Amino acid sequence: RHRPLTLLGLGDMGTALARTWLAAGHPLTVWNRTPAKAEALAAEGAAVAGSAAAAVCANTLIVLCLLDDASIATVLDGVDLTGKDLVNLTTGTPAEGRARAAWAEERGARFVDAGIMATPAMIGVPEAGGYVFYSGSRALFDTHRTTLEVPAGARYVGTDPGHAALHDVALLSAMYGLFAGISHAYALIEGEDIAPKDLAPLLSEWLGAMGFFVGNAAERLTSRDFTSGVVSNLAMQVAGSGTLLRTAAGQGVSAELIEPYLNLMRERLDADPAAHAGEDTVGAITLLRRGSGR
Ligand code: NDP
Fold first, then answer.
1. Any idea what the CATH number is for the domain that residue 242 is in?
2. What Pfam families does this protein's entry cite (predicted)?
3. What is the CA angle 149-10-131, rounded to 5?
């Protein structure tokens, strides 16, 4: 009932993954470039392969958890992948996911790429809420879903092997924008008679309330209606951005983390004030695709 599998890469994440499969009763073959990292797992029941090729040979399901895409090429160079099911948990870009899928297919393997939305401490702890995005071969995912769900929840996001990485990076990028705003807020009060721990609950509450922006943006980007029901119009927000910048200057704080977004709002307004003054800030998203894409 518990399918056997092979795991290549026993860093912090790989080791956490390995433990959950062993604990759940899956026969597990492991390999790591630095063999010492496999010793503890051997004591817990893992079969340790002497080479990546031997580890791949041992099972059909092959999970990769290496540092980056380049290390995959190094590890699997010349290894026979015919008939294998490759699951790549190594973080990469959408383009790397697509190229790696084509590379696997040429070698006779099925492939899904993945993006792990968890830290090693969240692996094997369902209540921690971590999960993994998967995309690529639907047949592979359906075949191994139960096994893949052992370390963390599994969310399949389509046949395009680039889409797991794209979801992963979209969420991480939004996270850094949030971190940037929070960092600026704390910098503003530094040295004042306001304790960070007193600002903290106010920040959490405000960011929670502003979370409506996620759904609001999705609706407007779908309908292309950027003006209906707007309560905080762009002209007002652009005028108000001066207050944010002057306050930062007055506090001796660099506005570098928030200025790019304020500039984008102004650019949207200036492009056609009559058309955009009554929007909220969602329309500014349409300015961001400046490159040629894929
Ligand atoms: P670690 O740095 O702890 O481990 C890296 C692993 O990659 C090790 O097994 C290392 O082997 C191996 N490796 C690196 N370079 C090569 C190479 N050239 N050839 C062969 N093996 C190589 O990283 P993590 O385990 O934390 O991360 C693994 C993947 O998981 C990464 O893609 C990471 O982005 C992703 N991830 C990690 C998260 C985290 O919080 N840790 C969260 C989400 C995703 P060796 O032991 O010999 O050095």
1. 1.10.1040.10
2. NAD_binding_2, RedAm-like_C
3. 25
CATH number of the structural domain spanning residue 155: 3.40.50.720
**CA nearest neighbour of 265 among 247, 282, 243:** 282
**Co-location of 216 and 281 in the same domain:** yes
Q: Are residues 225 and 159 in the same domain?
A: no
Identity of the amino acid at 15: T
Domain that holds residue 52: 5-166
pLDDT in tens, 176-209: 999 999 999 999 999 999 999 999 999 999 999 9
Q: Give one DSSP letter per residue of 229-264, joined into a string.
A: T-SS-HHHHHHHHHHHHHHHHHHT---TTTHHHHHH
Q: How far is the CA of 36 from the centre of ligand 1 (A)?
A: 15
In short, whether 11's Cβ falls inside 6 Å of ligand 1 is yes
Whether 258 is in a domain gets the answer yes
What span, in angstroms and rounded, lies between the C-alpha atoms of 2 and 83? 20
Angle at 160 between CA 158 and CA 166, to 5 degrees: 85
Q: 135 in ligand 1 pocket by Cβ < 6 Å? A: no
Average pLDDT for residues 119-144, to the nearest whole number?
97
The pTM assigned to this predicted structure is 0.95
The ipTM estimated for the assembled molecules is: 0.99
Region of residue 109 (phi > 0: left; psi between -120 and 50: alpha; otherwise: beta): beta
